[in-house]
Amino acid sequence: MDNSNIVAMFEMMDSSGRGTISFVQYKEALKTLGLCTEDEDLQDDGHKITLDKFKEEVCIHPASLQAFARKF
């Protein structure tokens, strides 16, 4: 999974084109990618998630992304 895949995923969730996604969308994306478990307690700080924040979080777990990519 490279930068273009991460951007495409973010853009699919940001259907309004505002440049942000909700915390719920963010958390679900991390779960889908296998980067967050049900047990993890991510705290919603009330801020919207930007593309930069999303990329930062996804890139912290490159091994998990490689495992996810092999599934498909």
Automatic annotation (TrEMBL):
Residues 1-36 form the EF-hand domain. GO terms for molecular function: calcium ion binding. This is EF-hand calcium binding domain 10. The gene is EFCAB10.
